[in-house]
């Protein structure tokens, strides 16, 4: 009789366990898609495989995501490996799904739309986040949606993809930011876009993406090839209320071999229209004296001279009263930031400027100039910010 009761008890326990395992988990609080565009040298850079290393960190970080969905779209420069989508929930890898994209590149807007739709439709949640992983060059723009550039050409934006699964260089095909914005309007509204790629925190991008996300997180400067420390950043992305501060803090804490830091910032996109109006107003008060184009000597810039720190520029040229009024709108838009005196750079940053808590804004801005890459003075007109901030009204 005792043996029979024990058997019944064991059966009851096992049944209860199975029932608990099979219970529906319900909607996740958040679904985050990491869009890994690695058909470039981030798959293999001098023998170091940054994409693979980040996938290891992501796996570790996924152990602490709770009842949330983490999706990772992986497109690497590996001929034997088709692009695939990983799904983590409650610390476990639930699925690995091959994505048939018919030889199309991750910088193709059709691919981004297809992957984002699948991630946010098949794995519903109360809120959604997107991580842009790969190469980027700020607002730089071409005429077509999938822009081809030679290795030395400058006009790029996001993606950096190669055909034939080549890991040579940073990529020859790119996606424009206006194109990206149009794609993301077709999927559920995002709580945040975290840009783990270079120079994405420029006012032109923030304004372009203002209708598709509540927050944009990233750096106005170059970031190191190793990118974010995903073992700590992945759990931070699931923080319900303080996610943007936690993401920035975990990223900023990362110890780099160079001993440098990554400058970071967060933009609240609902304030971008007010910032555009405030900028239009303050620009009209500025006197550049000798020329229509301002002299930019000693101002903070990121990567090259197309990316000046917006706050430092307005601080330098506006009167104290006008700057104070403008700064209110700026602070409402840039809600969190961390500055660095120096960061890793492979371009032409000489750090011959004074960067501190007062001068650093964490958001770059294109300022037209007469004698430097004059064609960019025309390309900027393809960005909505040019018109919203009233550049043409002051002769820019």
Would you kindly provide a written description of the structure presented here, covering whatever features stand out?
This protein folds into two domains: 28-188 and 224-254, Rossmann fold, CATH 3.40.50.11970; 272-332 and 349-394, no CATH class. The chain is 31% helix and 20% strand. The protein has twelve helices and 15 strands. It has a nine-stranded mixed sheet, sandwiched between helices. The chain has a four-stranded antiparallel sheet with strand order 6-8-9-7. Helix 8 runs antiparallel to helix 10 (320-333). The protein is globular.
Proportion of residues in extended strands: 15-25%
What best-fitting shape do the alpha-carbon axes yield? globular
Q: How do the helices and strands follow one another from N- to C-terminus?
A: HEHEEEHEEEEEHEHEHHEHEHHEEHH
Rounded mean pLDDT score: 89
How many helices? Answer: 12
